[in-house]
């Protein structure tokens, strides 16, 4: 057999595929070290310089985008401003509890309070809201798969449908144990 | 390369904030074909395999249970919808999210089979799909860092492609290659097909074919070889 044929045969083994993939990816990432860095400073979603807001003593640092709720729009850029009419107006909306925590703690922005229902980021929930929907869909699908497997292969094993007697995975000893436990 | 010469004249856009889906004859065709296949899969039932053996009369029937059938049908429909979404999206990060959704649903479709060799192949495929998050999202973020935008309309209007953009596109291609299981990483996927439940297994294959075509189009938009 030729050398290339032997190589193809080795590729046909699923156990080797993750190793091969990791090797190719590692080589490609090594190439990344010699690529000249070319960063565009004109970003569509700008971030403040690190530590600037913390040095200024803003409680919502590093997520402060300016503005005042219901009074003054915040500073947010969008790729297509014509599609986001009320941009800037929902920046940093805070629930009453969040406002209370912010008034007593200077570390509100980096605490756990800032995530669920505290600071609502305009980019995540308004201009790029579809991405957030997709991200939570990915999470939901993985939970559906995990809970289906957990429900059918660990908890409800005994309640499974009667096995097919023609199947090659049919084991009479397991089946008799199953029947005795059901009784 | 501009959008019109790749997909034809733009028939319209679907604006969702910064994420603008756009429709050209090319994308519309692929979108409709994926939806037709998804509808066909949604109304079909699974096959049952009979494994014969030489010299004996012991034929084995390998069938799919009702709860597994329902779970697989649901995941196959989600996979078809995600593929259809990836066909018409006009945003790079949105595209990578659709591909990540396709990858995790593909693992889910074969996660409940009872053949040990198929489960083993699905496990290896799942490992690759997990590794792929790095090049997939890393490539998109490198392109964002070097261009400052994620919209395909803006990327198409850039004058030249810098080496960092090309590196980001290669990482993106690597991520898609692993997530959809194309050559030379197809061995895990070929093993996964050896289980009953044909129409639902086929959406795994169909989604990767369509996603690869769309990926090549997006890479041509970004790196402008032609």
UniProtKB/TrEMBL annotation, chain A:
Q: InterPro entries, per this entry?
A: Prd_NiFe_hyd_3_EhaF
Keywords per UniProt = Membrane, Transmembrane, Transmembrane helix
Superkingdom classification of source:
Archaea
What name has this protein been given in UniProt?
Uncharacterized protein
Q: Which segments carry the region annotation Disordered?
A: 160-183
Task: List where the protein spans the membrane.
Answer: 20-37, 133-155
One Pfam family matching this protein:
EhaF
Automatic annotation (TrEMBL), chain B:
**What domain of life does the native source organism fall in?**
Archaea
Q: Which InterPro entries match?
A: NiFe-hyd_3_EhaH_prd (IPR017059)
Name the record gives this protein = Hydrogenase subunit F
Q: Which lineage do the record's taxonomy fields give for this organism?
A: Archaea, Methanobacteriati, Methanobacteriota, Methanomada group, Methanobacteria
Q: Which residue ranges run through the membrane?
A: 20-43, 95-113, 125-145, 165-188, 200-223
Q: Which keywords does this Swiss-Prot/TrEMBL entry list? A: Membrane, Transmembrane, Transmembrane helix
């Amino acid at each position: 057999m030729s050398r290339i044929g032997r190589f193809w045969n080795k590729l046909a083994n699923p156990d080797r595929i993750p190793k091969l993939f990791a090797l190719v990816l590692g080589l490609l990432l090594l190439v990344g070290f010699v690529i000249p860095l070319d960063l565009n400073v004109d970003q569509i979603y700008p971030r403040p310089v690190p530590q600037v807001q913390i040095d200024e003593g803003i409680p919502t640092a590093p997520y402060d985008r300016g503005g005042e709720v219901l009074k003054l729009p915040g500073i947010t850029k969008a790729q297509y401003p014509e599609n986001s009419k009320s941009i800037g107006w929902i920046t940093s909306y805070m629930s009453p509890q969040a406002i209370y925590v912010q008034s007593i703690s200077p570390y509100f922005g980096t605490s756990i309070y800032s995530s669920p229902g505290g600071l609502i980021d305009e980019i995540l929930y308004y201009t790029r809201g579809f991405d957030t929907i997709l991200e939570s869909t990915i999470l939901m699908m993985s939970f559906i798969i995990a809970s289906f497997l957990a429900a059918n292969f660990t908890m409800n094993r005994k309640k499974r449908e009667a096995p097919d007697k023609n199947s090659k995975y049919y084991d009479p000893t397991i089946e008799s144990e199953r029947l005795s436990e059901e009784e | 390369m501009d959008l019109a010469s790749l997909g034809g004249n733009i028939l319209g856009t679907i604006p969702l904030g910064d994420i603008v889906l756009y429709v050209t004859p090319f994308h519309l065709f692929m979108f409709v074909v994926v939806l037709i296949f998804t509808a066909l899969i949604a109304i079909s039932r699974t096959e049952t395999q009979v494994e014969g053996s030489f010299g004996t009369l012991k034929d084995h029937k390998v069938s799919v249970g009702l709860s597994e059938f329902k779970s697989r049908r649901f995941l196959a429909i989600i996979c078809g919808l995600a593929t259809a979404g990836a066909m018409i999206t006009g945003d790079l990060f949105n595209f990578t999210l659709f591909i990540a959704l396709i990858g995790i649903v593909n693992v889910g479709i074969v996660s409940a089979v009872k053949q040990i060799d198929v489960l083993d192949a699905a496990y290896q495929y799942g490992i690759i799909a997990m590794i792929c998050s790095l090049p997939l999202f890393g490539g998109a973020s490198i392109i964002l860092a070097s261009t400052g935008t994620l919209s395909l309309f803006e990327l198409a209007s850039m004058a030249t492609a810098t080496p960092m953009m090309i590196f980001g596109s290669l990482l993106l291609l690597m991520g898609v290659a692993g997530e959809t299981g194309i050559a030379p990483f197809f061995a895990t996927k070929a093993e996964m097909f050896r289980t009953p439940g044909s129409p639902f297994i086929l959406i795994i294959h169909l989604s990767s074919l369509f996603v690869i075509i769309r990926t090549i189009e997006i890479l041509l938009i970004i790196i402008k070889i032609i």
